[in-house]
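Below is how a single chain appears once it has passed through the pipeline. First comes the sequence as given, then the structure the pipeline wrote out for it. We keep one example in the README because the format questions we get most often are answered faster by looking than by reading.
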Amino acid sequence: MTTIPGYSFGTSAVPRSPVTLAELEQLKASVLFGDDDVRHLRASREILRDHVEEILDVWYGFVGSQPHLLASFTGKADGAPIADYLGGVRRRFGQWILDTARAELDQAWLDYQHEIGRRHHRVGKNRTDGVASTDLVPFRHLFALVFPITFTLRPFLARGGHGADDVDRMHAAWVKSCLIQVTLWSHPYVKDGDF
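Resulting structure:
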């Protein structure tokens, strides 16, 4: 278990997801996520673990260059970026890369996906880091970020010395996993009964 502040994956501090494991299996089937994807995600972990900070530099550079995305990390009072908040999220984001590549889609993982969704939504945003930032990360941005996150990850996957076919499969597994995760994160945003 990591000691990253605010990282509570696999702990009793995270409530149980309202999404069942059976519904997760349906979601996996909807994006054609199978055993090969698990294998390719795990293979990607061996490559990505040595490049987490570089990946985060790329992702944070992108978010920081887009005022509408950076706004979710700014203070309510002055609209200025909150450095400690950005730093705390960055450490958890780095762990998220490793958790995604670990590809253990069990109940603890499912519960933590719900917690991540809550931390982006007004029901839980700002509480982990104790900041006075915006109340919500607009869902449209979460969903749209699947592309830049996965697109910019591909060159890092290619660094592992694998053939183009394997890199394509690792990349596809990442796209599928991110789609599953963002769908799970949407739960707090969706009207009761509509998820």
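Residues 121 and 136 are 5 Å apart (CA to CA).

See the next section for the split statistics.
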